[in-house]
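Hello,

Our lab assistant flagged a job as stuck in the queue for most of the afternoon. It eventually completed. Since we weren't sure the result was trustworthy after the delay, we are filing this so someone can double-check. Below is the sequence as submitted and the structure that was eventually returned. Let us know if re-running is recommended.
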Amino acid sequence: MSMRIERVAGVDVGAKKGFHAVALRGRALSSKLTTCSAAAVVAWCREQRVSAIGIDAPSRWSLTGRARSCERELALVGLSTFSTPSRAVGEVHPFYGWMMNGIALYGNLASHFPLYDGQSPVVEPFCFETFPQAIACSLTGQKLSAAHKRTDRRRLLEGAGIAADGLTNIDEIDAALCALSARHVLAGCFNAYGDRAEGFILVPTRLTSFSACITTADGSLHFLSPS
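-- returned structure --
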C-alpha cells in the first residue's frame, strides 16, 4: 500500500464578482484564485492537480420550473436552499446570473473534471455540486443561522485543522468549505441528494473511521491506495 495526500478544491460562484476558488493539500491551504473566467478556474484546478472540486452553484436547471428533486430532499431534512428555476427563466432573470456562471463553469470543467452523476465508487477526478450552509449544519450537527455564517464557518474550518487566517472574505471561506466537503466525498463520507436528471447535491457527513485512510501527526488525511 502507498499513501497520497489528497488535493481538493472548492469554488464559490457569484454573478458580477465571478469565482472565488480555494485549493487544499491535506489540511493546508495551498492556493487561492479570484477570477471572472470559468476557463481560468479549470486551468487553475488542473495546475493544482486536484482530484475533486466542490462547487456552490446548481449543476442543472429545473425540468419543471419548481424546486429540483435534490432541493426538495434537502428541505425534508431541514436544509433549505435556493430553488433553481427552469433554463428559460434562469437565462433571462438578472437574479440568476450567478447560476448562469455556475452552469458555464460545469460546462468548462466537463472534459477534465466530469460532474458527479451518482456513480459508486466515485471516479476521480470529478466535480460536484454542494451547498455551504448544508455543509456547516451537517458537520456541526446543528441547525446554524446563516446570519452568523462568517463566524460559524470560519470556526468549522479551524476545527477541521484548516488555517483560515488566509481567507479574507466570506466567498473564500465558502470556497474552502466546499473544498473541505470534497475531502469528505473522497473519503466516502457524504450523502447524495437528487438524481441524474436534475443533478445531485453532495453534503458531507462527519468523519469517523475509515479503512481507506489514516490521519498522521501533521494533521493531514492520507488515503491508502494500491502500490
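-- support follow-up --
The delay was a queue issue, not a problem with the job. The result is valid. Residues 208-227 have pLDDT under 50 and may be disordered. The chain has one domain: 2-225.
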